[in-house]
Structure formats: C-alpha cells, structure tokens
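User: Hi! Is it possible to get a structure for several chains at once, not just one? Here's what I have:
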Amino acid sequence: MTEQVIWECFLMRRDGDLEWLWQRAQARDPLGRKFFDGIGEWLEKCRKAPADKAPQCLTCEQTFRDPAQPPLTFFVTHSEDPRINVVLLTGVCWRCAEKSDTELLKRGTELTAKFLKGRADGERHPSTETTH
Ligand SMILES: [Zn+2]
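Assistant: Yes, the chains can be modeled jointly so their relative placement is included. Here is the combined structure:
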C-alpha cells in the first residue's frame, strides 16, 4: 500500500477562476471550501506575521503585509487526497501577475517541490509527486 500524496497546482486568476471557485465553494465542493479557508488564513498571516515572516510574492521580493488590496492572482497547490485538508497559497503581486502563466507555474512548481521535500523529509514516507 502506498501512502503517496499527489499534489496538483494551478494558477488562480481573478478574471474567471475566482468565480468558478466561489461556485464550487457554494456547492460545498472540497476544493472551493479549502481555497476560501486558505485565503482567510493567508490574509490573517499578512496582518499578523512579523515583517520577515510575511507572505512573499511568488516571483519577487515583495511581501504582503496588511494588504489593502490583496493580490488577485494566487499560485494554488492542493490535493484531492482526503487526508490533505489544506491548500497552499502563494500570492503573486500586481506587477508579477503580468507574467505568463507558464512562467508563474514553472516558478511555483519549483517552490512547491522544494517545500514538499522539506515537509516529506520529516515524515515516514518521503515520496511525493507534483503534477499540474
Ligand atoms: Zn512580485
């Protein structure tokens, strides 16, 4: 029996995806629900985290602290695995949001792989796989 968790990534862009996710959340779809919970936690972190722990932009040095205008593009990592109850969100600042999906996804996938590796090293079954 394998314990491998399959992670999937996508870019959430304001035009289109947000409404789609909102509809999923209204329909009590797990991904929609987790996504909006995740956004809530992310915003909370922006407000409360010390400067060096504030959420950072996916592709530049900008950090999001008490954002009056939160970014509307997010790199989202999630899993359909019922054991995984969270999504990982990385904000993309307004400037970087103009980069192509391909570029942002590439960067996001690298970061996620690094994060999951660190996470997996502390677990019994270190094998993880990222798809998108
Ligand atoms: Zn940026």
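DSSP finds three helices and four strands in the chain. The mean pLDDT is 87.

User: Great, thank you!
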